[in-house]
Amino acid sequence: IRENLPPGTLVTTLRAVDADTGAFGELRYVVLEQAVGDPTTGDGRDAFAVNGSSGELRSRLTFDYERAKAFQLLVRATDAGNASATVTVRVLVTGEDEYDPIFLSPSFNFEVPEGARKGQSIGRVLATDEDEGADGVVLYTLAKPSPYFAINQTTGSIYLRVDSQPQAGAGRAKREPREMSLEVQARSPLPASRVASAQVTIDVTHTSFGLAPD
């Protein structure tokens, strides 16, 4: 069952088979009161209700994946002659993407040092996500590809795609300060993921990035 669905949501229909015909073949279903004793799951007795005649199992609560990921309960089917069978039902709660990723800062500032080489990291962005499971995994991408920079999708490290190549014929004192901007996006690996963005400003004064060749 997915988290956040309203109480009364149908989980499944339990069905026991009795070879008797007539009244002795009619079954009644009930959730047993004794605990199930699996420490990894919540007790499902209060979380679910079973329809005595149809065997429909429905939720009695709205579930939160971040609080409980599984429930277990015991259901008994009894016929008119008081013969019975029991079954263990395990219900897994699945998560939804409830929270936006959040960058630790709305903007980041880095510099390409003089003489930096291809593959060198110039800085790292970081975002967090309060979702658990796959929805809480953060992957990083550039909103638009850059000929000069790339980002490691799992660590958020921004690195050079090319050598920095100092501006030809320009002495240190003559260099005009120059900056480039990137937009970094954070999202989970799932298709309908929420997305957050942050601006990255990079000082490229000590490079030939973006300049026309001599």
UniProtKB/TrEMBL annotation:
<feature type="domain" description="Cadherin">
    <location>
        <begin position="104"/>
        <end position="213"/>
    </location>
</feature>
<dbReference type="GO" id="GO:0005911">
    <property type="term" value="C:cell-cell junction"/>
</dbReference>
<keyword id="KW-0472">Membrane</keyword>
<keyword id="KW-0106">Calcium</keyword>
<dbReference type="InterPro" id="IPR050971">
    <property type="entry name" value="Cadherin-domain_protein"/>
</dbReference>
<keyword id="KW-0677">Repeat</keyword>
<keyword id="KW-0130">Cell adhesion</keyword>
<dbReference type="GO" id="GO:0005509">
    <property type="term" value="F:calcium ion binding"/>
</dbReference>
<feature type="region of interest" description="Disordered">
    <location>
        <begin position="168"/>
        <end position="194"/>
    </location>
</feature>
<dbReference type="InterPro" id="IPR015919">
    <property type="entry name" value="Cadherin-like_sf"/>
</dbReference>
<keyword id="KW-0812">Transmembrane</keyword>
<feature type="domain" description="Cadherin">
    <location>
        <begin position="1"/>
        <end position="103"/>
    </location>
</feature>
<protein>
    <submittedName>
        <fullName>PCD16 protein</fullName>
    </submittedName>
</protein>
<dbReference type="InterPro" id="IPR002126">
    <property type="entry name" value="Cadherin-like_dom"/>
</dbReference>
<dbReference type="GO" id="GO:0016020">
    <property type="term" value="C:membrane"/>
</dbReference>
<dbReference type="GO" id="GO:0007156">
    <property type="term" value="P:homophilic cell adhesion via plasma membrane adhesion molecules"/>
</dbReference>
<keyword id="KW-1133">Transmembrane helix</keyword>
<dbReference type="Pfam" id="PF00028">
    <property type="entry name" value="Cadherin"/>
</dbReference>
